[in-house]
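FORM 7B: Structural annotation worksheet

SECTION A. Query
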Amino acid sequence: MKVAAITGLTQESVTDFRRRRIRTFEIRSAHNLQAFSEIGPGDKVFITDVALPDLVPGLCGCIAIVKGVDIRMHRMTYTTQANVEERETLSGRIQLILHSTGKVREVYPVEVYKPIYVDAIEVAMCEAR
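SECTION B. Predicted structure
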């Protein structure tokens, strides 16, 4: 199945997700936030702790069902005696429900300003090869 991939999560958060089977992740990386534009509740995503450049066929991760998506803009102000600086950051929250363990069959070419997609299959367990 062709699904959007969310990569580079911490290993601790993915392990916690597998244990609890439901979790809300806060996403700040631009390549992962792009996936938010094309997914919604009920869609499936592939999540992994592996960084985007290391996303290759044969990699194991989790296939999850999206329960909710929320995108927020944060404004921060830094003040010194000399000046005032304002910054904006974009972050998103995605609540996921564990569906199954998955394995990447194919990584689709990365397109500019588009989510990263993989062809993932459900597996009973992943084994090293």
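SECTION C. Observations
The beta strands are 2-6, 22-27, 44-47, 60-79, 84-107, 117-123. The CA atoms of residues 23 and 63 lie 13 Å apart.

SECTION D. Sign-off
Analyst initials: ____
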